[in-house]
Amino acid sequence: MNIPEGILCTKTHEWILEEGKTAKIGLTDYAVEQLGDVVFIELPEVDNSFSKDEVFATIESVKAASEIYMPVSGKVTAVNEELINSPELINEDAFQNWLIQIEPDNFKEDSEGLMEYSDYKEEVQ
Amino acid sequence: MLTLEEKKTALYDEHIKLNARMVPFGGWIMPVQYESIIKEHNTTRASAGLFDVSHMGEVYIKGSDSLKYLQKIVPQDISKLETGKAVYCQLPNYKGGLIDDLIIYNVKGIIDEIDYFIVINASRITEDIAFMKENAKDFNVEVINKSDDFSMLALQGPNAKNIIQKAGIDLNNQPKFFSIISSNLWNIPVLLTRTGYTGEDGFEMVTKNEYIIELWNRILSLKNEITVVPVGLGARDTLRLEAGLPLYGHELNEETTPVESSLGFFIPADKKEDYNGKDMILGQKLKQIPLRKKLYPFIMQDKQIARAGYDVYINGNKAGVVTSGAPSCTLGKNIGFCMIEFDGLNNDLVTRLNNPKETIGMNIQIMVRNKLYNAEIVKKPFVKKNYEK
């Protein structure tokens, strides 16, 4: 599993990667490992907007449902349709299998306080 | 979160060595999964799974009134329970709600000086023992809590019998389905029963705490000959749910009778002796007292997973709550149990809900994250039981 250069992580275990005007959002490898076998992922519809810290998706393991929060505010520009049909892919590679792509409202301001991956790793271990 | 209150089973260090994720359950710290719940579930159905169930409680009953006493505390007719046999029972309170469900074994001649051996739920040991002792006052009987003295394993799945035979048991003899023997596995003394909680053929083994690590490792060391994996509480829950078996605190509680929890099949109509809650339980069984609610198994028609606590709707009106819900690894569908409350529903609907012919196939809706999704009431079990009788 490759850790993409430049990802930022939240305390609630989401990652975000800025790619020009858009950004991809996913769940960290640590979060996915804690969940165990993922069996269902509910993603939002394209063009929906969410504020920072708002719930935008749900991920379910065999045992329980967990909510996923927006690392920054923004509008959904794409969702990873592949995960809807094959949610188990996220267990194989949590970074390759992003959840949604957004157009952030104000990435710079909103991303203050997010952690670099190395700091996040230290925090959870 | 873990607190200092949680007890460890004698196998705690073995679970840690196997990288188990440990969670609190019923006052114990228990493995919820080792590698993968799905893998543990599927391996149990295909070959064999080994479960640490040492948290379960064990009770000895002895004394000249043992039989009379048990006749008073369970609806089942214990006079019909032969030596070496087991029966699934419930422990009703005085109103017919359940304090616990349990398995009673007749162990006369199998355990020295003991008449009956009872296995009870971990989370209910304190309540069960208090209630059983309160009821013992009028009888010449001793209720002995052995829960701290024993550890217990469950070995479940179609290959469980091959492992037990490798341990030196000739299964042409005993134990047959729902039976118990006192024997040795390798050289370890155990009470060996043909029971379980997965819907598969399988065994449960009760032994002293000091022997349990050796027994656990002996069984798992056979894995190169017979596929067997350690299984945590996660798969234990999905396996029992597929088999349509109730779990105390979910499908069973003190406010719900066994008939309302769809266990009417296990209530004899012809037991003469009086027992706690008999008027209510037998009255409901014989349809002389109306049910206040009823448990139904359902399969989701949509992809969403119903979880315990989600609201259930019929024709757009709130009618009850999900008691257990999970994906079924075997069916590839999402399944569950729900308790429908009859109070507040129209009479016509209640009549239909009391008629099994009309309920099978009935559409209900489950509220998942503020949206209603379709489900269909079905017959239990969800997955056919694979017992060897």
Notes on the protein architecture:
- The complex is a heterodimer of chains A (125) and B (389).
- Helices cover 22% and strands 37% of the residues of chain A.
- With 125 residues, chain A is an alpha+beta fold.
- Chain A has one domain: OB fold (Dihydrolipoamide Acetyltransferase, E2P).
- In chain A, the strands form two sheets. A seven-stranded antiparallel beta sheet of chain A has the order 5-8-9-3-2-1-10.
- The two termini of chain A are 18 Å apart.
- By secondary structure, chain B is of the alpha+beta class.
- Chain B folds into three domains: 7-53 and 149-242, Gyrase A, domain 2; 57-145, Aminomethyltransferase beta-barrel domains (Alpha-Beta Plaits), CATH 3.30.70.1400; 292-377, Aminomethyltransferase beta-barrel domains (Elongation Factor Tu (Ef-tu), domain 3), CATH 2.40.30.110.
- Helices cover 21% and strands 32% of the residues of chain B.
- Chain B contains ten helices and 20 strands.
- In chain B, strands 11-12-13-10-4-14 form a six-stranded mixed beta sheet. In chain B, strands 15-18-17-16-19-20 form a six-stranded antiparallel barrel. In chain B, strands 6-7-8-5-9 form a five-stranded antiparallel beta sheet, with helices on one face.
- The mean pLDDT of chain B is 96.
